[in-house]
Amino acid sequence: MPGDLREGRIVIIGASLAGLRAAETLREEGFTGPLTMVGDEPHPPYDRPPLSKQVLLGKASASATELPTRRDPEAQWRLGVRATGLDPVGKRVLLADGDSLPYDRLLIATGTRARPWPNPEEAALDGVFTLRTSDDADGLAERLAAGPRRVLVIGAGFTGSEIASACRERGIEVTVAERGPAPLVGALGGTLAKLAAGLQRAHGVDLRCGVTVTALHGNGRFTGADLSDGSHIDADVCVVAMGAVRNTEWLADSGLAAGARGVACDAGCRAFNMYGIVTDDIFVAGDAARFPHPLFEYQMLSLEHWGNAVAQAEVAAHNMVNPGPLRRPHLAVPVFWSSQFGLNIKSVGVPTFSDQVVIAQGSLDERRLVMVYGYRGRVTAAVTVNMAKWLEYYERLIETAAPFPPAPGAADRATAAAVPVPSDVPDPKVLSHGPTVALTGYLPDRRLTMVRPV
Amino acid sequence: MTADTLLERITDYANRPNPYPLYAELRAAGVARQTDGSYLLGTYHDIVALLHDPRISADPRSRSVPRGDRSEEGLHLPFLRLDDPEHHRLRTLAMRPFGPPHSPGRVDAMRGEIARITEELLEALQGRKQIDVVDDFAYPLPVTVICRLLGVPREDEPLFRAWSDVIVDSADVRPGEATERVRAGQQAHAEMGQYLVDLAERRRGQPTGDMLSAFINEPDPAGQRLTGEELAVTAVLLLIAGHETTVNLITNGVLTLLRHPDQLDRLRREPDLLPRAVEELLRYEPPVHMRERFPLADVDVAGTTIPKGTPMVLVLASANRDPKRFRDPDRFDPARPDNEHVGFGSGIHLCYGAPLARVEAQIALRALIPRLGTARLVQDPPPYRRNAMLRGPRHLPIEF
């Protein structure tokens, strides 16, 4: 095999989970050439899931979530500097400080950032936060520790719901405003969203669904917000949790197939250019990637999941230093988790790729259940609530395209609930929170999930 | 010989020292129906799938044809042999004083005490030319630990050892008539349960920091607690599991290291490899070799339909040696990467005491390894215990 793939210059843009895991894998696979890691944040790679959980509860400091390294990636680190452009012909990445980095192979792992509040003046009010970086979490945790009278959370996706949960656990009054019909509905569909809504209210969240926030008020300091139903919320802190924006703008002139839904790539993580021709020296991994998945009709998936960032980074790195026949596809079944209001929620597959759901184990009343999602008669996803140990079984059903509804026989299957009902996954356009899984089809607005307007 | 006698041959005492060739035969056979109608399974992927399948019951009452020689009717079963949701309720209550989320620091806090007990045991052996690893060390260590943890007087060990021997023997999978064994086991279980409930009752209102005190005095936030009968079966389970399994892990550890002097040397030089070495031991010579399960519906396993209610014996120790999952599976490699063994099972019945067993084995072997420099096995293979399910040497004499 050609030894040169283990040599040459590799540049990784993005110094978070995917970038770090790729760098480690490159070294594990025997890459000996110079490796440069570029990150726009000044911090070394850190873990984000605790930022909306332990950090907000005051159980861990935002600076204590540094990612453990499996091995020293022996990289040259360029932290605190943003990539601003890519010249794929000259094979150079342009940096904000004017520098340019030559590469032989490039990995794009720029991930996402929090979607900002659309009005910049209102967004600049003291007390208005987004939550994506450790600096964000630091600032928000400090405000929560100071004991605000009320926190307003805009958007009831996973991040917004976890923030609301942390507030309630700390005894802080919280209002959650969501444009859609219920929390988490964009990711989990109607039935579990109803459970989530009931749970939030039972924990004392002032949950307002079907409304939008029309204005944030304050005189330098945030004091409150207007809602579309004419009501007004007085609060000291506002967290904008309206989903994420992919960091792909810097690729606008690169000729790559990069857009709002990410950078399109093949199953081997190789980026496509805008003509749909695959490159062989530019790879993509993590939240910035948009890739075809055979289990979901080869639709292009954009995921914002921890596990996907790791798995895809490993495949991308392997393929960067191995010739064609030895390359591997990224076929991992998507998995994510959340903890909120005392519940452990785990998901496998793509719940939004569904037309029906059935409760296969446990019950809504116990708040311990497995919800199985089907699409045209096959199992496509499962979500466990406080029952994560069963997840593997359903993962296997998804991988083998097992019939939906799944075969009966579980010891804890409630017969009354074993009738499939519509999954009620709304069009993401109607939500405040963006979806963390997007089935992007071949056109950005093409979706194959059943949409039931509410 | 044909695969339908595999269970008979595996449980044959003559094969106790080395059942692994039989396990290879089992994996080659795929799903092996036995002459008594039960099914024997030994490949990694089949077993892991079954352990995560909600249609597979651990409850012996799920047998379609009850065994004439044993009756579980009307008996209270430990959570090990129950299905959700009952299993979940009992295991959660049992976990409350032992592990996360309620008692996350419990096992870690015992490290110092385990190290102290280990040193005391080893000190008493100073200057001896020959020891029995089982009786002198690997048995007394976990017994002392589980006694402290539960709040059982160490002096009563002969009492509950006798009960435990009978109970464990009655639960073995070996074929043949078991009426007398089962009756004796149930009798011993009742006596041991009563003994533990009496101990717990004495702590009512006077907690002494142990788990029996917690069971009797601390209801969970929903006001639930174990009933007297549940406490009895749970405490019996923990006491037995706490001293019938770790003894094998430690003993198998010493035996395996003495059979692999190069690896023993390596661990002496690189003691930080020990946690991984313990995982490898759990794969290579696990204390628990098999578990019994019953399908609640007809299930397909590797192309065979196993009818509802038919006993299935999952040979975990065979899964751990499956070459389709582990490269070079018969090699003992303390640094083995990607070692997701099923030594502790998998799924909802994943060993409750695993964190404690890991810590005990790590501390025990860390203390022993420097002293094994000149040791040699007096007998290889050593004499084994009768039980095929909980497999381990009865004695392990070594000479210095």
TrEMBL record, chain A:
Signal peptide range: none
Cofactor section: FAD
Keyword set includes Lipid biosynthesis: no
Keyword Oxidoreductase in record: yes
Start and end residues of each FAD/NAD(P)-binding domain: 9-313
Descriptive protein name: FAD-dependent oxidoreductase
Tree of life domain: Bacteria
Domain Reductase C-terminal per the UniProt entry, residue ranges: 336-413
Keywords in alphabetical order: FAD, Flavoprotein, Oxidoreductase
TrEMBL record, chain B:
Stated family: Belongs to the cytochrome P450 family.
Matching Pfam families: p450 (PF00067)
Matches recorded under CDD domains: CYP164-like
Gene3D superfamilies per the UniProt record, alphabetical: Cytochrome P450
Domain of life: Bacteria
Descriptive protein name: Cytochrome P450
